[in-house]
Amino acid sequence: MEMSNFKVYFDLGFEHILDINGYDHILFVLALAAVYLLRDWKKVLILVTAFTIGHSVTLALSTLNYVVIQPEVIEFLIPVTIFITAFANLFKKEKSLKQSGNMQLNYIFALVFGLIHGLGFSNYLKSLLGKNSSIVGELLAFNLGLEVGQIIIVVCFLIISFIFIDLFGMKRRDWVLIISSAIAGIAITLMLETKFW
């Protein structure tokens, strides 16, 4: 794969995750990151990578037509994953937020729900690839672009949480409740707006 072609697909992945019109994936990443602080950046990096691994698997399988699921179903399931992740955050107590062992559920959400998000990414990627037979390089470049975009989103979010919690003294639990409630509310709206019904 030529470097220029790699850059094209890297940029497409990067722009796709940062596209404000495709904010459903951003909401999911924020729902995952809502319970973490800036000092937890290593854990969040693992979390984002788990999401990337999850969506890379189904992105590849769906793009290669090994897995075919109706787009309407995926459009409904993506906000469901966002809602479940944000809703689970609402039940995390202040004490459990400080104990990393209680955050394992988020890693499971990132990996398993990443599989569903990969199916959403695949519809976009399929339309770009057309009937191109060799897509391994394109898939890799696209996924790397997504990963870098996700990391940027998370870093910006963690900086904002640092400002509110560490500088302004907001309670961590209150921050998680506000962010997660807003995300859950948006997810419900997205579910109701899908053509699934």
TrEMBL record:
Q: Does the keyword Signal apply?
A: no
InterPro entries found in the cross-reference section: Put_HupE_UreJ
Which stretches are transmembrane?
20-38, 45-67, 73-91, 103-124, 144-168, 175-192
UniProt entry keywords in alphabetical sequence? Membrane, Transmembrane, Transmembrane helix
Domain of life per record: Bacteria
Q: Does the keyword Magnesium apply?
A: no
Q: Which Pfam families match?
A: HupE_UreJ_2 (PF13795)
Q: What is the recorded name of this protein?
A: HupE / UreJ protein
Q: Give the originating organism.
A: Marivirga lumbricoides
